[in-house]
Every structure is written in structure tokens, then in C-alpha cells.
Design a protein that fits this description.
With 79 residues, this protein is of the alpha+beta class. The chain contains three helices and six strands.
């Protein structure tokens, strides 16, 4: 199972990610910031509060999360 092992929030709604197989890359999630759950992430300070849950999924304090496998595929397609 693909899991995120490191995450860092960058400007312009970009996440720098490292996965458990060593793949690294950056993904913009700007196009995903709509709807009740993701709306708070438009605030840069809140966006920066990204973390990794015990299952290796990136998440925010309001329980917004993004599937690790989808992010992984976005990065892997660039290689």
C-alpha cells in the first residue's frame, strides 16, 4: 500500500511529498480546493497545517484528506 511518509506545504497550494517507496515530488491541489471540507484550505496558514495520519494519508485538522494513491499517480506520471 502506498503511504506518504513526508509532506511539506509550499506556496500556491503545492504539496511536496515523499512516499514509502522513495518516490518524491510536488503536486498542486489548487483545483481541489472547493466544497465545504476543502474551502478552509484556501487560507495559507490553514493549508500549512497539513499532516500525515497513522495510515500514511495527508490530512488537515478539519478532517479534509487526499488519497495517497491518487497523489502518487500524479507524481509518478511525470517520471
Amino acid at each position: 500500500m502506498i503511504k506518504v511518509t513526508q509532506v511539506k506545504a509550499l506556496p500556491n497550494y503545492i504539496l511536496s511529498l515523499t512516499f514509502n517507496d522513495g518516490i518524491q515530488g510536488e503536486v498542486s491541489i489548487k483545483e481541489r480546493l472547493f466544497g465545504e471540507v476543502f474551502e478552509p484550505l484556501k487560507d495559507a496558514e490553514y493549508f500549512n497545517r497539513v499532516s500525515i495520519d497513522p495510515h500514511g494519508v495527508i490530512c488537515w485538522p478539519n478532517n479534509a484528506d487526499l488519497a495517497s494513491d491518487v497523489l502518487y499517480e500524479k507524481i509518478k506520471l511525470r517520471y
